[in-house]
Amino acid sequence: MLFRSWEQAPQARWPDVAPVADHVGVEHLLVTRHALVRQVLTDPGTYRPDNALDAVTPMPVAALRVLAAHRFRLPPTLANNGGASHPEIRALVADALHPTRVAAQRDWLAALVRRRVADLSVRLDAGEPVDLHAELAADLPLLVLARLVELPDAPVAAVKGFARAALELFWAPLDADRQQTLATEVGLFHQLLRDFAATGGGLAGSLRAAGHSPDVLVGALFFLLVAGQETTSQFLTLLMHRLTGEPAILAGLRNGSVAVADVVEEGLRLEPPIVTWRRIAAVDTTLGGTPVAAGTSVVLWLARAGRDPVTVDSPDEFRPGQRGSRRHLAFGAGVHRCVGDQLARMEAATVVAEVAPLLAGVRVVRPPRCPDNLTFRMPDAFVVRR
Ligand code: HEM
């Protein structure tokens, strides 16, 4: 649930605010309580978002050269933009993801998921193992996103590969060789996006029409291609895995005594795909009584905030609809709060409703494994059998 080196730190009980050093010796301030995480997220004057996409393992010159050769730039556009252009760029993305446009995708998605679940059931009945991550969850959010914002016609596998490479390059502890490999993959995709940004319709067209530079277009699309699909596909896998260990909830879903929407919220609270998010202190200040110097990297432990006993009755139990279940911070808060939350919820609700009967009859052969990463859980194969 947290950077491995911090998880293994000797603190048996984390204080509200704790200084922690990362794998390269950089100090961060880890914030563990719901109220304090919220306070930071909703005070952009004191805590700026500028470091949200900074690489936690500094890039060596060789990897930077690779990125530069592909003209890779990540100017402030959305999550890392504390400047004047943020509201307008955000508004254009929000238009593309408007709740009515999201709702219009529901039937199409439900039909696709139903077909896949039916095929998987046949294979499970025949005694085969199936990988619910690869064969059900992984590409669904990308397919929906492509319909909503008219994405480039890149093959799904290439986009998934690039997105996971980006999450590793910016948020994982890495050695120099791996950084170079990842920089090549991310750089190549960036170049592809640059071509698309010049001609693409949909969101790319609206950003161009609003007068944004090619760098801004590429930056916004780059972020959206990662944030807008990889997060949700990770969440779908984490939630399905969790539900296989919650037979009473699966039974409740089937007989209608448990609401799908409540399961999704409780899932976001207990199994968020994004476990931490960063801000940087803009001025000298204090947080929960701890002095914070300007320039401090503040790591907000979103997953832990969701389990704060002050806000939720049974913090570690999966109880859909319990008091405080919806008060999680899985989507952040304030002016940068996730703009795709309704889309993610719609996708998760559709999958949960369709897959619940299948999950009730399987046993887990291989649970998904999550690599070491500051922010993203990135589960891999999730294999089940009847
Ligand atoms: C379960 C799935 C998802 C989770 C857990 C999630 C979580 C987050 C978090 C924690 C932030 C940072 C919020 C902050 O700084 O306060 C964020 C920002 C953002 N997310 Fe999501 N997200 C998800 C799905 C999506 C989807 C489906 C889209 C779009 C298709 C999306 C687009 C964005 C954008 C554009 C931002 C930046 C907003 C801004 O800075 O104004 N996310 N998300």
From TrEMBL:
- Provide the family line: Belongs to the cytochrome P450 family.
- State one molecular function term (GO): iron ion binding
Matching Gene3D superfamilies, A to Z?
Answer: Cytochrome P450
Q: Which Pfam families match?
A: p450
Protein keywords: Heme, Iron, Metal-binding, Monooxygenase, Oxidoreductase
Record flagged with keyword Transmembrane helix: no
Quote the protein name from its UniProt record: Cytochrome P450
